[in-house]
Specification:
It is a single chain. The protein is of the alpha/beta class and 133 residues long. It has a single domain, classed as Transcription Regulator spoIIAA (2-Layer Sandwich). The chain is 38% helix and 17% strand. It has 4 helices and 5 strands. Strands 1, 2, 3, 4 and 5 form a 5-stranded mixed β-sheet that branches. α3 links the parallel β3 and β4. The longest helix has 16 residues. The radius of gyration is 15 Å and the shape is globular.
Length: 133
């Protein structure tokens, strides 16, 4: 494997359990991302093409349900500030997500705001992350 592109979806097991029915998401995700980084290192780009390394994706959710304030600083601290991070703003409610009763999180019935995305970007910058976005 030359390139890993995992998601760092949640910063909270409580949210992971409520939205994805996974009780130990944070620990398993962190261990997996750490192992991926150990195997391939930081993303290496030659002539605009990624050739080897780790690129972590993080989808911003309404009302910070993804825990960007936890996930992004963890990436910087545990993996490194040279980690390439794709902070995604394309959350769109689909299927039953627009149902305000889903998991008790009515905010999932809307997309994210410009302010929510900007806040996630600021968290990344404050954590020292500087590649990607």
């Amino acid at each position: 494997i030359d390139i890993y592109m995992p998601d760092a979806k949640y910063g909270s097991n409580t949210i992971a359990q409520a939205l994805s029915r996974v009780s130990d998401y944070v620990e398993v995700n962190r261990a997996a991302i750490g192992e991926m980084h150990r195997q391939v290192g930081d993303l290496v780009i030659h002539d605009g093409i990624a050739v080897r390394g780790l690129l972590v994706r993080h989808l911003v959710l309404p009302e910070n349900l993804a825990g960007s304030d936890i996930v992004l600083p963890w990436i910087a601290d545990a993996i490194g500030t040279d980690t390439y991070v794709n902070i995604m703003d394309q959350y769109h409610p689909a299927f039953r997500a627009a149902d305000p009763g889903i998991a008790g999180y009515p905010a999932l019935g809307r997309g994210i705001t410009a302010q929510e995305y900007s806040a996630a970007m600021q968290i990344a910058h404050n954590a020292g992350l500087h590649r990607g976005f």
